[in-house]
Amino acid sequence: MKNTSLVAAVVSCLVSLGQAFTAPQALAATPLANKASNKASGQTSGQTASQAASKTASKTAAKSATRKANMQYPFINGHYALTGVMKTNGYRSNAPTVVLVDKGSHSTHILQLQHLGNKDEIVRVMTVSNAIGNEDKPTPPGRYLVTMKKKYPVWIPTKEIDPKQKPVPPYNETHKNPLGVAAIYLNKYELALHGTNDPKAIRKSVSHGCIRHSNSDISRIFGMVKRNTPVYIVRQFRGTVLNRSDFIKAPAPNEKAMTKFDASTEKSEDEPVQPNVPVKHKRVVVEETC
Fold this sequence. Notes:
This protein is of the alpha/beta class.
């Protein structure tokens, strides 16, 4: 019995000594394990951040490519060919505008580049009837720019029309003025889009080169165009090719150059003209065909 007790005491002592030696080693190993764990965790976090940054860069590049593509759409190599089918939408004052005079159908179209949904589209805002040049004085096709607009302009006939070139007062003073309520002047050949004193002649080839419209229609067009607005005069609508540069927003119009009216007139130059309503203003005399 004594021997058994002695053996048990020795075993207990040895176990205690073993624990005493093992505890410092375990304590010493713990920081190393923690350090290794932190290092592994840091590597994992770094990899995750790198992957996230890569995904973000890819998304940004994709958005940039989409935005670049949208900047070109609907143009192909900077050009847009008109077809027989076009979307229509209301006029937007902040959208680039192009006027297209179709001689074949005696129509004038107002086109705009508008942002619809998530992309740009060329839409037809308005189509009205016109009258163009006769066989002796045909309206020359080409690309033009608006240089000036006038409400109730004085008409000075060319020498071919009137050798004396006697000025004809504005339409609101006499309906003998063939320019009607307004005129939009182009940069070549003394051409203009204007109203008329003979609405029955619309949709005919009867003018001396200019493009006539009803007074109500020219009043609407007057408010939609500005200086440097492109105007295409073409033989037919379908197949006409427009340039992307035509839809780059034109600079703000110089009001003094665009119109020269009495300062007492409260209307701005872009407001539609009211046909047959007398308006007092200073006369602006320009020799022109009609």
